[in-house]
Every structure is written in structure tokens, then in C-alpha cells.
Amino acid sequence: xxxxxxxxxxxxxxxxxxxxxxxxxxxxxxxxxxxxxxxxxxxxxxxxxxxxxxxxxxxxxxxxxxxxxxxxxxxxxxxxxxxxxxxxxxxxxxxxxxxxxxxxxxxxxxxxxxxxxxxxxxxxxxxxxxxxxxxxxxxxxxxxxxxxxxxxxxxxxxx
Length: 159
Description:
The structure is a single chain. The protein is mostly helical. Helices cover 69% and strands 0% of the residues. It has a single domain, classed as PhyR, sigma-like (SL) domain (Butyryl-CoA Dehydrogenase, subunit A, domain 3, Up-down Bundle), CATH 1.20.140. Helix 1 (3-24) packs antiparallel against helix 2, helix 3 crosses helix 7 (127-134) and helix 7 (127-134) packs across helix 8 (138-158). The N and C termini lie far apart (48 Å).
């Protein structure tokens, strides 16, 4: 892939990538932007390993997901929405985001469940695609989705 083709792909996928990372970072825009930049640099440096066999977006999201999991800026798991709300206190999350309670509830999920929920519901990936992006089995993804949904329902009802 040439540099120009890579740039064209990135321009087409950049908004989706930032949205994905923003959800994983529980609305912390600065962290999401930093992770997006790191992921794009890693993707560019890994171009030799990209095969046009799959979607560029899936390949890029896999790199972004791994960057999120290994990055110290990823938000730590909270026990409750109230704890997350207290921690951010209007400065950490994008307070203009219309689904702020969802971000707060996502913050209560472990990273793997948060990733599965975000990829499935916010990005429209299939279980098979999520398994490929997260390096998990399809059964593990199904469990993560089930647990994540149950936890989100409970947290959002309680808030």
C-alpha cells in the first residue's frame, strides 16, 4: 500500500476510529485523540503487515484496540456510575456528548467487555469480526457482550 492510499483510507476511517476510541475512553476526548494518533502511527509503521484480504477499518480498529488495552491513559474501571461521575467532575469527559450516562456506565465495565459492547453496538461489527479485532474466541465475545449488557442495564437503571 502506498502512502497516498494509506492517507486516503485514514481520511475515510478517521471519524469512525475516533468515535470508537472515544467510547472506549469513556468520553475522555484528549485520551481518545492521543490513542487515535498512536494507533495511526502504529498502523503506518505496520503497513508491510497489512494484507488487502480484510477491511482496512477492521485492521485499523484492531491496532487501536490493542493500543487502548496497553495504554496507561485508558480509563480505569469504576464500581458505579456515581463514582465515575465524581471522578470526572465535568473535566474528564466530553460533557456535551448527549449520551454522557452511557459513557459513565461504560466506565464501570472491564476493558474487554467495554470493547465488545462498543464494537458491537456502536460500530456495528459482527461477533466474528469482534473476535478477530480483539483476538478472542467468538464464544468469549458472546460472553463479554452478555455480561456487558447485563452490567450496563443494572448500572443505567440504578443511576
